[in-house]
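Pilot study result, target chain (196 residues):
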Amino acid sequence: MHSPVVVILKSIGQGIEEQIESILNPFDFNLYEEPIKQYLIAKDEIKQALKFRRLDSSLELLKLMQEEEPDDDIGMDEGGIWEYTEHNCKGEWDYWLVGGRFEDLLSPYKSKNLILPSDIESCVCEVKNISSDVRCAAIVTPDGKWHDSNEFGVPNYPNQTSEEQLEISMRAWSEFKNVCFKKYENDYAVIIDCHS
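Predicted structure:
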């Protein structure tokens, strides 16, 4: 599935693609070549996961996750619930392109004063000009955090939820985008076509 992702950068001088690669690298599905222990749910996130799944204990949550993925090596220790795998549990993409099928998504927000190489010109704009109506599945901020619309209840496919729930989720995602764009208003946004 291809998804439009807004990556926010502090500057857009030389090496835009290298900056993007650096900020997106931790989210590469294929980051690891050998199996390693990766935390699916960190210790400090377990309470939230229990509430979301309407469970009473971390052991119940572990058992449920093991039942959902019987072929995976899932366990728990003082750090949280982990999986032993070579796939990056924090992975969001297997390949990406600047712009790609979404290359004109930020064009309406680009200032005429912003001069860029022609191959990325339609893919970059000042964050201060972006509306929260911009269609994107995620925002990656300069601090290296991936903020996904799914975290706000927005499903990958609209028919996965009721219209009422979709409206509530989309409103929450839009409010987050407003806050995020305000926080980084002096920075630059690049639209990325992420495949997962």
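One observation from the pilot: Helices lie at 16-24, 46-53, 58-68, 163-183. A full batch analysis is planned for the follow-on phase.
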